[in-house]
Structures are given as structure tokens and as C-alpha cells.
Prior knowledge:
InterPro entries: Cro/C1-type_HTH, HTH_RamB, IrrE_HExxH, Lambda_DNA-bd_dom_sf, ScfR_C, TransReg_Diox_bact_type. It comes from Hoeflea poritis. This protein is of the alpha+beta class. It has four domains: 5-67, 434 Repressor (Amino-terminal Domain) (Orthogonal Bundle), CATH 1.10.260.40; 71-119; 145-278, Orthogonal Bundle (Arc Repressor Mutant, subunit A); 281-437, Beta-Lactamase, CATH 3.30.450. The chain is 44% helix and 13% strand. It is built from 18 helices and 13 strands. The protein has helices at residues 9-18, 23-30, 34-41, 49-59, 63-67, 71-81, 93-102, 104-133, 146-156, 162-175, 181-193, 227-242, 244-254, 259-278, 281-290, 295-301, 306-313, 359-362, and strands at residues 5-6, 47-48, 196-200, 210-213, 218-222, 317-318, 321-322, 327-332, 337-342, 371-376, 382-391, 403-411, 432-433.
Amino acid sequence: MAEQKIFAGPRLRRIRNQLELTQTAMAEELGISPSYLNLIERNQRPLTVQLLLKLSSVYKIDLEELQGETTGTTSALKEVFSDPLLADALPGDQELIEVADAAPNAAAGVVKLYRAYKEAQSRLSGLSELLAREGHTTSVAGARLPVDEVREVFERRHNYIAAIEEAAETFHEKLKPGEDLAGALRSWLAREHGIVVRLLPVHTMPNWRRRFDRHSMRLFLSERLSPFDQLREIAVEVTQLALGEQIVAELKALDFSSDEARRLGRFELARYAAHALMMPYGAFQAAAMRAKYDLDVLRSRFHVSFEQVANRVTMLQRPGASGVPFFMLEIDNAGNRFRRAGARGFPQSRFGGACPKLNIHAAFTQPGQIFVDAVEMPDGAEFLVVSRTLEGPQGAFNERVRRTAILVGCDIGFRDEMVYGDAVIGTAMKPTPVGPSCRLCERQGCLSRAEPPLARPSGLDEMVTGLSAFDFQ
Length: 473
């Protein structure tokens, strides 16, 4: 039987230093030469089973201490080096294991420092939001990724782009798609640009939704996508060709700071244009008013998904033909935010959208079910919010379903114009008290509180325990 070999030089060196022994002294007690021990400590020779037993016998060392796993520290280091700020310095798994082995205290210090940095970043973000809510502007800005810059720009601005809306509506009229918009767009791509659309199986295109091959002039779509998402991907390609001038002009006006941000911004504008093409403004706005913004009715009428129609209702702000000023929020079941938009900009200062009591979180308990609720902010502002889960691309049998949830909301004053207002009008239930986020909310005794408030001292006293997991004075 082959002898098991273990390379654990740095751990052996730590043990020797703790015992305050020189290499010569330890080598003599183990019956090996100092030079051989030196090679072992530098991981150039293995620790054999016989040597392990000798170490255990002479120094009463727990063998697990030498063979101990560094998985926890290695995983924590992976988290540190996955931060976008360190994207260019991402080491391999083996290098991280070597760091955790050779310098565990230093590795633990790096992890502790990183977590303190993330906590400070979170507090600074909360403080900036708090100051903004009170009307103070802040010049403090941390390092931002291009995707963060793009998100912030689109979340702040009105979700209505007149030039793209008009161009999309004009193009739709010339196209005359009838009841088959997907077929009309495929035909236009083939006729005008020689582009053929092909649906590819998962094993051929496992990692992409859409890919355009310039050499063969073919647009490949993944079979994972629903027919609605396939339509949007085709529409995105069409709008970049047919509405390119309007998209480029709007992109220049946004004045992003980097090429990467401009690339992401262009995609967001193309996505906006695709929705405008799939649901032309005039027809969609009229249908929305007749249906009292019943999202299920609208998605059936325009042959689109719930997510697509929820996005579209936030865009209805054409002067003289505006609709209810909706805002929209999409998250996953871990609370990660994917998208925020609003007819008048996402109401970050008034609504926030990060309260665990919002029905967007409850939607995950009943997939596909629509939740309607009236909510009240600490300052007395009330909103009507509608939430529902969304299904992502079709997964294989052994893959976990990707599910997100979307919230569409508006000021409670518009409830009479919406079919969902009937769910809250005349009921004895009071609006659900919510907050912008736990860091900025000072409601006492909240059972859902996930973090202490930023501007209040934590803890009560030894005589009082509050209902919240994070008591404060």
C-alpha cells in the first residue's frame, strides 16, 4: 500500500515556534536531520505517516492540527478577492489555500479588515441616504462599478424617453405586424439585413441567452427562453438596427464615465426600445386605461410576459397622454436588487423598497400569486403595491429554478384608477407600516427588523428587552 503523504510545512513551523524549539532541537528529538526538517517546513518534503506518529508521541500533538482543513479561511478569502475592487488580483484556489496555510493569522486579519470595510461601506451608504432624505447633498462617493453607475442613472431619471417612443411607434406602424410581431421582426431582419434567427439547444449554447454571429449573419437564441423572452431578444436586435440613431443620441446625453458604462447603458436603452416596440405607446396606454392597469389582462392582450408589462407601465408619461406614475422593483429571494425604475424616477427617498415587510418578499411563498397591499411610510406617505414572482429561463431537471419577484407601486391616491385598488378600498385593514430600510427606519418593536437604525444608539438596558432582534433607545 502506498504511504500517505501530507504537505503541512507551515503548520509544523507554527507548532515548532509555539514550542519555542529550534529546527536543530526538533530534528534531534524526531530523529531526522535539521536539513530534512527545513525541507519539510518549506513543503519540499512530505510529512509521512511515521513522522506524524512520532510528532504525536513526542509532543502530544493532535494529528488533526496538522491535517486540519483551512476550508473556512479559504472560503472567506475567496469572498474577499471576489470583490470588484480586487477583480484584477484574483488568485487561484491553490494560492488561497497556501496563504491560509502559511499565514493563517494574516489571512484572518485580511478577512476581518474586509468585513469591517463592507460594514463601513453599508453604514456610509445608509448615512448618505439619510442625509439625502433630509435635503442635504453629499459629495462622498465610494468606488463604483460601471454597472452601479448605469443603475443609478436610470433609477434617478424619468422612465420615459420621447425620441425612442416616437421612433418605435413609427417603426411599428410601418412594419404592420398584425398578430405575429415575432414573425414580422424575423422577416424584417432577413429582408433588410440578411440576418436569420435560429433557436439553439441548451448543450449548444449553455451560457448565453442571445448571441449574434457577424460572420454567418445569424442571431442565436437559447431554447431556455420563454416565447416572450425570445420575442424581446429579437426586438432588442431590431431596435439597435432600426432605432440606432435615437439610442446613440440618448446615450450621449447620459454622459457615462467609461466605455463599459456606455456599453451597459446602450443595452438598457435597447431594452427600453424593445418594450416600446412590443407595446406601442398609444395602443398600450389606451388599453391600460380601459383595463384599469390589470397587468394580467394587458400581458394577454399584447402577448408579453408579466415582467415585460410591469416594466412597460412605468414608462407611460407622454405629455398629454400620461398614465398612473408607477415605479417598479425586482429582487431575488435573497433580497438582491436587479432593477428599479419609475415614471418619475424610483422614489428612493420616500419609498426606499428595502423593507422586509413589503409583500414582494411574501410573494416567494406563493409563486405566481398576485399580492396587493397598501403600505404606510414613517412620514405618513402611503403607497399601493402589487407583487408577484417571475420565472427565469427554463432550467434542466438537475438545476434549481431561477425565480425573482417584481413589485409595481404608485401613490395611494391613484387607487381609484386601478383594478387593484378594489382590494384595499373599503376594507377595515389599516395600511401595513413599513420603512425605507432597516438602517433608516426608527419604528419601535418591529419584528421584521434586520439591522439597527443608523441614527439611534443600540440597546436598551439590563432591565428591558425589546421585541426586535436589534433594540435601540
